[in-house]
Amino acid sequence: MQRYFVPSENWRDNRVLITGEDAKHILKVMRMQDGDHIICSDNNGRTSLCEIVELDGNVVEVQVVKDVETETEMPVFVTIAQGLPKGDKLEYIVQKGTELGAVSFFPYTAERSVVKWDEKKALKKQDRLEKIAKEAAEQSHRSRVPEILKPGSFSDLLKMAEQYNIKIVAFEEEAKQHESSRFASVLKTAAKGDSILCVIGPEGGISQKEAISLSERGFVLCGLGPRILRTETAPLYMLSAISYHFELKG
Amino acid sequence: MQRYFVPSENWRDNRVLITGEDAKHILKVMRMQDGDHIICSDNNGRTSLCEIVELDGNVVEVQVVKDVETETEMPVFVTIAQGLPKGDKLEYIVQKGTELGAVSFFPYTAERSVVKWDEKKALKKQDRLEKIAKEAAEQSHRSRVPEILKPGSFSDLLKMAEQYNIKIVAFEEEAKQHESSRFASVLKTAAKGDSILCVIGPEGGISQKEAISLSERGFVLCGLGPRILRTETAPLYMLSAISYHFELKG
Predict the structure, then answer these.
(1) A-contacting residues of B 223-242, CB under 8 Å?
(2) ipTM score here?
(3) Between B72, B187, B244, which is nearest A250 by CB?
(4) pTM for the full predicted model
(5) Closest CB to A250 among B73, B140, B188
(6) Relative to the CA of B183, which of A172, A250, B12, B224 has its CA 20 to 30 Å away?
């Protein structure tokens, strides 16, 4: 069934008002009618089966039929801090990372980032990534849309890192030296509700200098297996492994 | 350092003859000279640091300086059987799946596959996918290039499955019912050297009918966490989790 995130201020007495892009999608793309059903989430933990009760040119009103229980969020809160990669890789990371359960993404300019974003470009990119995250969250049945944090610098990354319980860096040099125990060891120390910050470098990885400042601030430098992963593959590996570790207990 | 797979028949007395595309790449793209170094793998377990000793118009000859030990292959042999997806998703699955350690890929026509490949198209696609696998294997420092198996039908899949120790299907219905223990339980039964067949459906997943014939043949139907993954994300999740399980011991 079609799913839409509707801001909680649009929910009143089990009536939900859908406007903008989503209303257009319901009316023009899905061509839905009175009595059709959709799933609405308020991006705040509430997800409900709803019936369309009114449509006009650009607004759709639905009535909650029943709240549906969803447990689709990870038991830990994972933020992906991604060194700015080339091309459209970041869009891909946000789409797949949303399916895989990340709660937020922080694009930062790393020493080896080739692309640079000025204020204007950063805002435009942020809007685009927010749209991708919303669509991926709807498709993957998430009950919250991951946040796209304002892109920043490496020192912004160091500042924000202070709020996290657990801090991990994907570090290729460790992988090459067959370091293979730290990632799993760190995950074993994590508890339900912990916040985990995963830092990934751009193409070429993080620099030695960056690795040193991160480890000085309590980050654990981890290899992700013996194969060299591309910058856009590393976050998916980390999120899949974290999901496997916390959500798929044997 | 640049890496190339060179068929073992081109290796003689620590001399390696590089021809075709790779020679072009060394000469025209990398613009290498006598004395430059590259890494060559014979796709048969041998990987060597080599020095360029001769170049002519379209052939490069290199001398082995020393063999380098590599342990970049998974301790288990994972084959990804992928229901034909739309667009270029399969290329993406082969590229990422190669980075993540799969040893072979089997594209099959599933009940819900929208695209159909005739003999001619299948051959063309297979060539293209082999090229992608070779490049991804070089980039990720694999010591073998994953095999692209001849695309086939669902009954071909059932036939080939007989050779595998462990057979797993990603089944969305199980995920929706929060089935969360089987995937990890099955991996716990696997030993070093086992062959694991992972079956993924196309968009829309595998059908109930397919699920039944697979489980009748000893496949384990597994959920991959509570979120609904796209067809191209499921194999990456499975490979990442298998790598985490077998290669990253905490």
Answers:
(1) 223-230, 233, 236-237, 240-241
(2) 0.90
(3) B187
(4) 0.91
(5) B188
(6) A172
